[in-house]
Amino acid sequence: MDFGSAYGAFNGGNSKDKIDKIKMLDKDFLKDKNVLVVGLGRSGYAASLLLAENKAKVAVTDKNKNPYLEKTAKELESYGIKVELGQHSRELLEGKDLVVLSPGVDNRNPVIIWAEEKNIPVISEIELAFWFCPTRKIIAVSGTNGKTTVTSLIGKCLEADGKRVHVCGNIGVAFSSQVKYIYEEDYVSLEISSFQLERVIKFRPFIAVMLNFTPDHLDRYADMQDYYQAKKRLFMNQEKEDFAVLNCNDQYVKKMAQGIRANIVFFDKDNEMNENFSAVRKVAQIIKIEEKVIDKVFSDFKGIEHRLEYVGECKGVGFINDSKATNVESTLWALQNINKPIILIAGGRNKGLSFSKIKPFIKQKVKFLVLIGEAKEVLKEEFKDTAKIYEASSLEEAVNSSFHKAQYGDVVLLSPMCASFDMFKNYEERGDAFRNIVKELIKKYA
After folding, report:
1. What CA–CA distance (Å, rounded) separates 142 from 103?
2. pTM, whole model, 2 decimals?
């Protein structure tokens, strides 16, 4: 069902004029509409509250059930929101006008299948937040790798230039949670994943940035083309007064320029530290931020949590938290940027990726490969002729084993190449656990 017919379903007929003015949305647009939110993570929680604040009748469903979700459910129920945990029931979908998805919910979810059978419109949390966001100054950053760094740096450049900015999205702060704090003159620096783009309809960033495109999430997408098309949706609603900032060194990203209506601005590695900085500079130039302001932000930048984050040293052995590296390209980048012998902790939930590209770098730079999680057997088979392999039953065992195998001057690197969901709630929880284990190790040997 397209948005036109969805809007018509809410209002007793199709009204193109109202659809075209969706950014001037009447706050009562969803008043008394029955909306089902699927998934009770950060995005689902924020979407539920945004809907309730705008007078919708809200229900939430999540197939999981644990103490954290039960606590969250009780909080939402205090706002009159009905919450279903541990299952998805068809009955909860009855009478619904709209379904809103958390990004972790894919097209195989039964609620989506049932909704489409009933012609109930399905949108993403990002789309919902966009409907109620009062500013047009949205800078959306996507790509396989580097999104968090670039989104953060754009936010810092805007702040340094005296502008009011909200940094949110896939970076860890739901867009829906920020809408009520955003004014018309504000900027939004928004990290966007392919998952969030799958169900956008009217979402239109003023500046859309595509950093790179490499294999990822093949456990969710049918193939690379399917993943590519999801990413390209970032530009689908842009017009000639908007900007598309593209990596000219990435053949797939460069190809995305075909059919884009926005002004196309290419970035190159140039003389910057890396392509991420170059992308940020191009965005800042479009906004007319002075070069000296940009340079100051770059010089002050200390990096991103869970991305090549230096944790500490114990008896001459360094520890680096790269938990955000959930694909091969991210771990490859880490190996290329560490100039010491490495003991690599890898593994988690396999996303259907090929690991062949990284083999030469592991052979060259990794002394020992310590494997954890569901992907242990796959990785063991993949790298059996590439590195010395050890297995661990937990992250704590992996850290301690790595430390005892290390020599003075070595680095223990957590850069998993896999998702965290087999052992942890997300990559942040995995990175926090690694950091805490290392701190205890340092304390023990201090």
Report:
1. 14
2. 0.76
Q: Which residues of 383-397 are buried (b: 16+ CB within 10 A; e: fewer)?
A: beebbebbbbeebbe
Classify 399 as helix, strand or coil: helix
Kindly give the interhelix angle for 291-300 and 275-286, rounded to the nearest 10 degrees: 150
Burial class of 249 by CB neighbour count within 10 A (0 to 12, 13 to 18, 19+) = middle
On the CB side of 229, CA atoms within 13 Å amount to 6
Q: Which of 176, 172, 165, 220 is nearest to 194 (CA)?
A: 220
Q: Which two tokens stand for residue 386?
A: 């590439």
Burial of 20 (0-12, 13-18, 19+ CB in 10 A): exposed
User: What distance in Å separates the CA atoms of residue 81 and residue 44, rounded to the nearest whole number?
Assistant: 12
d(CA 438, CA 425): 20
User: pLDDT in tens for each of the 446 residues of the chain?
Assistant: 343 444 444 444 333 343 344 334 456 789 999 999 999 989 999 999 999 999 999 999 999 998 889 999 999 999 999 999 999 999 999 999 999 999 888 888 999 999 999 999 999 999 999 999 999 999 999 998 889 999 999 999 999 999 999 999 988 899 999 999 999 999 999 999 888 998 999 999 999 999 998 766 566 666 778 888 889 999 999 999 999 999 999 999 999 999 999 999 999 876 555 788 999 999 999 999 999 999 999 988 877 788 888 899 999 999 999 998 988 888 988 998 888 999 999 999 988 778 888 999 999 999 999 999 999 999 999 999 999 999 999 999 999 999 999 999 999 999 999 989 889 988 999 999 999 999 999 999 87
Domain architecture of the chain: domains with CATH:
31-120 (3.40.50.720), 133-300 (3.40.1190.10), 309-445 (3.90.190.20)
Beta bridge mates, 413: 320, 344
